[in-house]
């Protein structure tokens, strides 16, 4: 009796969490020492920018993987040591590589990633303009009558209805 | 006619890129630790009376660090290969047992003390190694996963090759296969031992 009650309550709470869609609440819930709200806020801000390596499409803030838990604990420790956001990210990058960053650094290796889409856009716009211009010039040449055609037409019109 | 081939060409290029993408292993993330000194640690070993062990004890040797746990299924797959490798006396293998005792192992309502965790981890590992063979020159316990973080461990098993100067030369995530052993690890060993 008591067990079913407890089960229902857990289910209800879980449903509320899922429905509210606040992933950070989940992350918070998994933390045993969520005491300092300022520290927690910074933890969430930082860990939302970091990838969980176990479940690669989740951020460190939202993942419930064991490793994500450990890493959040680690980030919390670094925050309490007064490290800057950049220092904390560097700490993780030096261990797990650039892949942990959801926002990759701009460096020669990532230039294609950062600027490639703009390059494609420029190429596409250029392609579109040249296509439109080609079509326009093709249409005008077709539409315009040459002088000889105009004279011919005029001659037909002038000749009237004579059979 | 030429116009017909342009979209076809773009399509084929796209297909080629996607085909390459499909073949790639998303688990394979280049480790930033390659070419860097192996992070130091000092951990308890399987031998209850033994002293602590760390990479500093392996200076001057080419050695393998194998991250494993008894709860790890893929570790079971690679284990016979490691046993064979140790029997062939190719190189010393150090077993780093990663987070052997998990949160769900604790009795309801209380947490295990580090001493209890270590005792349980030793017991379990000893049984496992007795049953499946012990390829490890030394077995150490990373109970809280702190050393794992320093080594960038994100999926057990992971295997590292560390050279005589203590620099990480190779890393693979997932079970070591005969193919990786023959095509990558053994040639690398020859090179490192020669230098």
Provide key terms for this protein.
heterodimer, A: 163 residues, mainly alpha, Helicase, Ruva Protein, domain 3, 2 domains, elongated, B: 195 residues, alpha/beta, Glutaredoxin, five-stranded mixed sheet, 40% helix, 14% strand
Short description:
In chain A, 67% of the residues lie in helices and 0% in strands. Chain A is mainly alpha-helical.
Explain this structure:
The complex is a heterodimer of chains A (163) and B (195). Chain A has helices at residues 2-20, 23-29, 37-47, 66-80, 85-96, 111-143, 147-158. With 163 residues, chain A is mainly α. Chain A has two domains: 19-105, Cytochrome C biogenesis protein (Helicase, Ruva Protein, domain 3, Orthogonal Bundle); 111-158. In chain B, a hairpin with a 5-residue loop joins strand 4 and strand 5 (168-173). Chain B has a five-stranded mixed β-sheet. Chain B has helices at residues 2-23, 73-87, 114-132, 146-150, 178-194; strands at residues 63-68, 93-98, 138-142, 158-162, 168-173. The chains are: A mainly alpha (163), B alpha/beta (195). Chain A binds chain B through residues 53-54, 56, 66-67, 70-71, 74, 93-99, and chain B through 26, 29-33, 99, 102-103, 144-145, 148-152, 154-155.
Oligomer description: heterodimer
Taking the alpha carbons of the first and last residues of chain B, their distance comes to 61 Å
Query: Per the principal axes of the C-alpha atoms, what is the gross shape of chain B?
Result: globular
- CATH class of the largest domain in chain A reads Mainly Alpha
Helicity level of chain A, as a percent range? 55-70%
- Count of alpha/pi helices of chain B: 5
Determine the CATH topology of chain B: Glutaredoxin
């Amino acid at each position: 009796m008591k067990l079913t009650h407890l089960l229902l309550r857990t289910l209800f709470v879980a449903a509320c969490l899922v429905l509210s869609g606040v992933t950070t609440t989940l992350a918070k819930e998994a933390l045993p020492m969520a005491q300092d709200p300022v520290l927690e806020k910074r933890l969430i801000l930082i860990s939302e920018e970091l990838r969980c390596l176990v479940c690669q499409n989740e951020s460190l803030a939202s993942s419930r993987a064991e490793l994500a838990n450990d890493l959040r604990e680690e980030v919390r420790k670094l925050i309490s040591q007064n490290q800057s956001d950049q220092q904390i990210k560097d700490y993780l990058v030096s261990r797990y590589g650039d892949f942990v960053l959801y926002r990759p650094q701009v460096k020669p290796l990532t230039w294609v990633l950062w600027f490639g889409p703009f390059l494609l856009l420029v190429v596409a716009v250029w392609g579109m303009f040249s296509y439109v211009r080609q079509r326009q010039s093709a249409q005008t040449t077709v539409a315009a009558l040459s002088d000889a055609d105009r004279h011919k037409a005029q001659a037909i019109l002038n000749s009237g209805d004579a059979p | 006619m030429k116009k017909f081939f342009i979209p076809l060409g773009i399509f084929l290029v796209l297909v080629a890129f996607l085909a390459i993408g499909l073949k790639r292993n998303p688990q394979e993330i280049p480790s930033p630790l390659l070419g860097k000194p192996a992070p130091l640690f000092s951990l308890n070993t399987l031998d209850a009376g033994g002293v602590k062990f760390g990479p500093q004890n392996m200076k001057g040797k080419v050695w393998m660090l194998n991250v494993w746990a008894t709860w790890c299924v893929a570790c079971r797959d690679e284990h016979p290969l490691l046993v064979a490798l140790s029997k062939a006396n190719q190189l010393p293998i150090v077993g780093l047992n990663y987070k052997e005792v998990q949160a769900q192992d604790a009795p309801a309502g209380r947490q295990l003390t580090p001493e209890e965790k270590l005792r349980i981890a030793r017991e379990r590992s000893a049984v496992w190694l007795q049953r499946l063979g012990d390829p490890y020159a030394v077995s150490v316990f990373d109970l809280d996963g702190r050393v794992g973080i320093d080594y960038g461990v994100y999926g057990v098993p992971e295997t590292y090759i560390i050279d005589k100067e203590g620099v990480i030369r190779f890393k693979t995530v997932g079970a070591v296969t005969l193919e990786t052993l023959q095509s990558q690890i053994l040639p690398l060993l020859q090179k490192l031992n020669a230098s």
